[in-house]
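Give me the fold.
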Amino acid sequence: MEPIHQRSYSKPFSSAPFLEQKRGAVVEELGRLIASLRIEPIPDRRALVEGARQRFSEPGQGYSGYEVKGRVLWSYARHCLTNYDQVRAAVKARVGESELYENVKVYLCCRIVREYGLDVDPLYAAFGDNGGYGRIPDRFLVDNLEAAAAQMIFQAFQQGQ
């Protein structure tokens, strides 16, 4: 009898069906997450400005109407009127700091900026000061950023990534 350490148990096995099934489940989950972006309606721009003013004012140091714009409105809308942070964190947990994660983050930022009519560059909203424009991937330097990001996500879903 042949010793155990010399026996060959090589049985043909392919992990392809398992990986394809897992990839399909991740793609479906990402689709649900992206679709779950909740954007609360606001009656008008004054309500958005007033909400931001109340949220970020320090006692005795309120923001003037001029100061409550741009990045302050973006922060207020993102944190208080949407579930952006939860959706972004869930996507990141599934795909890590990948190209797909960046595409989703940019798409979500574009949606929020458009829905609230914010005067903020969606790339700045997505990458912030830390990203710096020198580190923004070239694929985002396009005319219609929201459509381009949506197309990149769609292509990733088609490829099952």
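The radius of gyration is 22 Å.
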